[in-house]
Amino acid sequence: MEKIIDVQHLSFGYDEDTLTIDDISFSIEKGSYTTILGHNGSGKSTIAKLLMGLLEKKSGEIVIGGIPLTEETLNQVRSQIGIVFQNPDNQFIGATVRDDIAFGLENNCVDPALMDDIINEYAKKVNMYEFLDHEPTKLSGGQKQRVAIAGILAMSPSIIILDEATSMLDPKGRNEINALVHQLNKDKNMTIVSITHDIEEAALSDYVILLSDGHIVDEGRPEEVLMKKEEIESLALDIPFAYKISHGLQKMGISITEQIDREKLVNELCRLHLKK
């Protein structure tokens, strides 16, 4: 598989004495959905900013889409990436929601004749169509996040970084946005990098990079990483709900597969029930 992000021996510190990111290396495959998972303060949001060139690395190399990230290539690299931060307030530029979603399209020289349809499409996808003529500053935190996500999705970048992007949404809104992003990942082969401490979100990804105190402590497919109960709990993270249930049922003597996928767990429980 083709690497779209390649990070080698990356280090960074906010001061001279302490490294927030300490000699980490990882790669992300094109078209994958990768989660960088860690507790608050583990350094995962710092990685997002380093990938965007918002922070200057102390050492190491970052290659995006085959282009090494340098001061000279910064704009070229950024043109491939859309990022949604936890707090969307600093991302608003337009006087209305419509203007804000249009801003990125205008910068990308999208045909004005096509813009209204694109704006309407993604405003509907995030359930903000009826707010297109509202001022972004007067929206709730969750609504602002939906607008920020719509603005990024409308530009169809090859890579989307979600830096705790659904943390301000209620559970229903979080599920809707996650479903939308997963659909874009499948339909448009968009590479998704989710920066989160949400174990359930990580369980639905293709690959998990587990971070603690600026170090990668584990990585692999979700079922390889997230079922290591002692390791996950030692990092102040929760265990996937489906694993808790399936593991508990096994301890009760019920023949069921330990897993982290809720849908698969429900299907297996239904099959067991029908066999009775």
From TrEMBL:
Name the InterPro entries for this protein: AAA+_ATPase (IPR003593), ABC_transporter-like_ATP-bd (IPR003439), ABC_transporter-like_CS (IPR017871), ABC_transpr_CbiO/EcfA_su (IPR015856), ECF_ABC_transporter_ATP-bd (IPR050095), EcfA_1 (IPR030947), P-loop_NTPase (IPR027417)
Which species is this record about?
Massilimicrobiota timonensis
Q: What is this protein called?
A: Energy-coupling factor transporter ATPase
Residues annotated as domain ABC transporter: 5-238
Q: Which family does it belong to?
A: Belongs to the ABC transporter superfamily.
What keywords is this UniProt entry annotated with? ATP-binding, Cell membrane, Membrane, Nucleotide-binding, Translocase, Transport
| Localization in the cell | Cell membrane
Coiled-coil annotation reads: none
Instruction: Output the lineage of the source organism.
Output: Bacteria, Bacillati, Bacillota, Erysipelotrichia, Erysipelotrichales
The topology of this chain with respect to the membrane is: Peripheral membrane protein
- Which NCBIfam families would you find in this protein's record? ECF_ATPase_1 (TIGR04520), PRK13648.1 (NF010167)
Q: What is its main location?
A: membrane
